[in-house]
């Protein structure tokens, strides 16, 4: 495993956590949370997966505004044994995985400005909490996230982090799930974005392809715009089962000899649910 060479910033603990310092948020900052929350909570019934919608209740705390992590963690702990801890921003990989492996979810400690409601490249507390925490209240997904953290620590020893990161991207961040014959959203990057909550399900541009572990780990992704391909899992149980029962060590070695795939690629062996037109992607110059 790689060692963290970077040191935690001034005032942070050795595991990079900081005090959330909830009292410091201004009324304007709480209002940004409330606006985003209301907008997405209205949009997502019938779009988000049942697990995510069920988990949303865990965020309905005693006060509106940005959740106080202590109160939130108490509720989450009662549901699945997870906690939410504050960090100043992105943390080193081994630190991130170690938190997950111990059922701690790290959340950013700032919120976007009122003029950034629709798009923000770095994850803020709205993305981290509204996007991720509802799924952590689901027992099966909660186990998947912990297993992912353990697998992440292991991947560092194989220099295979970039392959494993694709699994996180195409499931945790941008995953779709099939429920009762319909596509539903569970990826945090989608549920925390109004535009992508519509695009991921309704737009003719992206591909929607049945999840396959090898396939996903070969596929590059873009971080600066809506996805060109979404991968669809049949259920959270199935996602957990296939990742737990696969030893990734030989898989990393095998994938080393294979070509990476571009985000929009469709292969003959894919089970394609929607072949996308890629019209949206073509209209957007790469930045
Ligand atoms: N089974 C994986 C390994 O051998 C670990 C893992 C589990 C990775 C769940 C991701 C998700 O490394
Ligand atoms: Fe995220």
Automatic annotation (TrEMBL):
Gene Ontology annotations of biological process type: L-phenylalanine catabolic process
Gene, per the UniProt record: phhA
PANTHER family: AROMATIC AMINO ACID HYDROXYLASE (PTHR11473), PHENYLALANINE-4-HYDROXYLASE (PTHR11473:SF24)
Gene Ontology MF term list: iron ion binding; phenylalanine 4-monooxygenase activity
InterPro entries according to UniProt: ArAA_hydroxylase (IPR001273), ArAA_hydroxylase_Fe/CU_BS (IPR018301), ArAA_hydroxylase_sf (IPR036951), Aro-AA_hydroxylase_C_sf (IPR036329), Aromatic-AA_hydroxylase_C (IPR019774), Phe-4-hydroxylase_mono (IPR005960)
Pathway field: Amino-acid degradation; L-phenylalanine degradation; acetoacetate and fumarate from L-phenylalanine: step 1/6
Keyword field contains Cytoplasm: no
One Pfam family cited in the UniProt record for this chain: Biopterin_H
Record-listed E.C. numbers: 1.14.16.1
Keywords for this protein: Iron, Metal-binding, Monooxygenase, Oxidoreductase, Phenylalanine catabolism
Record's catalysed reaction(s): (6R)-L-erythro-5,6,7,8-tetrahydrobiopterin + L-phenylalanine + O2 = (4aS,6R)-4a-hydroxy-L-erythro-5,6,7,8-tetrahydrobiopterin + L-tyrosine
Amino-acid positions noted as binding Fe cation in the UniProt annotation, renumbered to this chain: 127, 132, 173
Enzyme class label: oxidoreductase
Annotated ranges, domain Biopterin-dependent aromatic amino acid hydroxylase family profile: 1-287
Name of the protein in question: Phenylalanine-4-hydroxylase
Family label: Belongs to the biopterin-dependent aromatic amino acid hydroxylase family.
Cofactor dependency: Fe(2+)
Cross-referenced Gene3D superfamilies: Aromatic amino acid hydroxylase
